[in-house]
Amino acid sequence: MKNLIVAVLALSLLSCADNKNKIGPIKKEIIPVRKDSSTAQAIPHYDGRCNLDNDVSSLGIGMVMVPLKFSLYDDSLLSGEPKLVDMFEKYDSLNNVCSCVFDPEYGLMHFACTGKTDRAYRVLINYSQVKWLPREKDYQFKSWELYLESSFGIRRKTTPDSTRTPIGLVRKDPSDEADSVSIPAGKEMFCAMQVKGDWVKVQYDCFYNSDNNPYEGQPCRNYINKCANPITGWLRWRQDNKQLIDIFLMP
Length: 251
Hints:
Elements lengths: L36 H6 L19 E4 L3 E4 L10 E4 L14 E3 L4 E9 L3 E6 L3 E6 L5 E4 H6 L3 E4 L33 E7 L2 E6 L27 E5 L1 E2 L2 E2 L1 E4 L3
Antiparallel strand pairs: 1-5, 1-8, 2-3, 4-5, 5-6, 6-7, 9-15, 10-11, 11-12, 13-14
């Protein structure tokens, strides 16, 4: 759960100094680090480690992106004393607060949102622990549809073994029974065009493997229509509350 951001909150994940190898994390690209699959299956809850891309018990209805300093509450009325979190105090206030997307160095903490009231967002920390964030202007909620469609690009997660095989196929229609779509060899990147439930319509980024990509650092929506022979299809982006794709949230 394949696997959301304040000056960098501008919606988006990342591009490498070496555009071909994409094996960060370094300044321009952060590659989600996933837990070992055997551990995740054996202990399906927070185990004390917080990576960039963290599993949650439910992906919910979207993501809440918080400011550099924010408050976590225990109840929906926000009546109790909040836990004050400062991303710059990495080993103090951040202790025991693990979000779905977590990289305080870049100002990235995105929480899976499972519901909301007039006053607060119901979010998950540490896999399944429920907390509440205030519905204030500095706390930005995005539905999964908007979160994906406004990203800089997406790609399939890969298997944890040495083959690093992409998970799932690109389909002609949003169905596991639909025929697959052939993708050119090389590093893949897609632009999210439309979300339909657990599926997202994508267009292959024909510029991603270029030695001199003229659109490097731009949101894919700015240039994807310039591909001469567009390849489109559907990707299953989640299944059983597991995220099957990496979402690029920054240039």
